[in-house]
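Office hours follow-up: a student asked to see two folded examples consecutively, so here they are.
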Amino acid sequence: MSTTVVPGTGHEPGHAHGHADPDMPVTYGLLAEFETGDAMAHATAKATAAGYTHLDAYSPYPVGEAADALNFPKSEMGPVMFIGGLTGACAGFIMQYWANTWGYSLNIGGRPYFSWPSFVPITFEMMVLTTALSGLFGFMAICGLPRYNHPLFNSKTFDRASCDRFFVCIEATDPKFDRAATRAFLNDLHPLSVEEVME
């Protein structure tokens, strides 16, 4: 979508969000399209070096140089799944301990009530189950899911981000964002196109 937005009264050019008129279209950001991953990575590095902080890169496959330029934080999934699995294992073990020694204690073959080797299978299964569930729900929480729509899907060209095109989007929430200056900056990076994306 290449709609030009006319700022309303009190609209600051560098701050597309926070305007007064709720019916006026809001700019999400400027989306630059590139033909190769190297060009996208180069543009991402240039944008971060220029001081832009609210930006992202989109590609059909991972491009390590772009991820480095964006300073991707270390994944939080490992700690989330570890804590989830540990909690599940402890819960499974405690549940069996309580059931065999207090709640429903049965003398089976003269074995002691607290026969921990027999607790291992259930403890392991509980660990696997809770690790998988914490991974699923942790992933959704970290990614902000469920989300029914994203402004970038308003772009017709963005469909090719999963096929053969590479994109860099500088969001309007960036403190350095200025519609004209940011568009000129992106044009200097020689993209195939620069598109203003609306929310």
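And the second, which I mentioned at the end of office hours:
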Amino acid sequence: MKSFTYDRATSAAGAAAAVARAPGAMFLAGGTNLLDLMKLEIATPTQLIDVQDLKLDRIETTPDGGLRIGAFVSNTALSAHAVVRRDYGVLTRAIQAGASGQLRNKATTAGNLLQRTRCPYFYDTNMPCNKRKPGSGCPAIGGCSRQLAVVGGSDQCIATYPGDMAQAMRVLDATIETVKPDGTTRAIPIADFHRLPGAAPDRDNVLEHGELVTAVTLPAPMGGRHFYRKVRDRASYAFALVSVAAVIQEDGTGRVSFGGVAPRPWRVEAAEAALPQGAAAVTRRAFADAKPTDDNRFKMTLATRTLAAVIAQAKAERP
């Protein structure tokens, strides 16, 4: 690990300005992903701005009946919150499907959304990687790609977004609140937050350097039955081969987001109209532009079968 300076922020705008002033500065919150990246020298910040004193750890109801979740709320606290368990069950189930209990105690809401890919080529610093070093190449294309994207990739990168929580946030239509270095704020719909790799796979999201996530807001509860089903190589502490976050209404309509298949939570709203016709009809539209490799073509079938299991469970639980 390379040397760096360390400071504790006293205000959100101050933290954003401090990071903006130094091209090599980064925010530090729970650190569950960043410290791993620093140990491997994939991330080499010259300055860390610790934001844990900013009191961004509250969960509050909003005037329109929704929920505002501070950026520093731990995954454990969020998944266990009574309102989340009652009205946003897909979020509780997604969080509890991820990582270990110890990691969920430290991982934060903002940090979870910002975590970087677990593509093995990204973590192997002896290999080129366009996401780690733009222009160096992508050996995953033509290499071992079993865990990697079947849709949304580019000729520069086929890494997947690794998180579970974001899949739930996507079907709930969450909004990410930020503060910029000049003190202004903005609200970013989660549909626009994570980027596809295109020709710039090193940029995972639309944040500017120094822009700090302060909260995530959820709209009023939408009702329905909430599901998160994750298929992985072992029963716990593993990233998804395929996951499905879904909210299914009594009439069979609903919302669906797929994880483990794309560089960002993969929700195609136009495909959701086919939910009453069954899983195959949905995935046929959601993955219409898929470009799987021989290694990961199985994910297409797995996504259909996982969604089919969710739909069957929703039907079985109808009163």
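Two things to take away from it. The CA atoms of residues 5 and 47 lie 5 Å apart. The first strand starts at residue 5 and ends at 8.
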